[in-house]
Amino acid sequence: MQIKELVEKLVQALVDSPEDVRVVETEGTNMTLLQIKVSRQDVGKLIGKKGKNINAVRTIVAGAGKGKRYIVEVVGESGSGQGTGSP
Q1: 53 FRET partner, CA 20 to 30 A, in 9, 26, 40, 64?
Q2: Cβ count within 10 A of residue 78
Q3: Residue 12: in which H helix or E strand, if any?
């Protein structure tokens, strides 16, 4: 399973509208950006209290990344960034 697919499955388990989950992967020279797009009402669920849910996703990605650097970003349906960074 690829990292993109793993993130998609994890996020779908966390939100109320799993059919709206999209993960866009952009490869760079030193890192890979994973943008998670969810419906506007699911952004809060994905982030979680004090960022616990999204930080858990970032930790899993870092562990599964086999030494490659990943940046995980949450994007609402409108395209406005809601959280960036990596663990």
Answers
A1: 26
A2: 8
A3: helix 3-14
Per-block mean pLDDT, blocks of 10 residues, the chain (87 long): 92 95 93 95 95 96 90 74 45
| Contacts for 78-85: CB closer than 8 Å, 24+ residues apart | 78/40, 82/43, 82/47, 83/47, 83/51, 83/54, 85/58
Residue appearing with tokens 């998670």:
36
Helices (H) and strands (E) in the chain, counts: 3, 4
Distance between CA atoms of residues 52 and 22, nearest Å: 20
Contacts of residue 82, Cβ cutoff 8 Å, sequence gap at least 6: 43, 47, 74, 75, 76
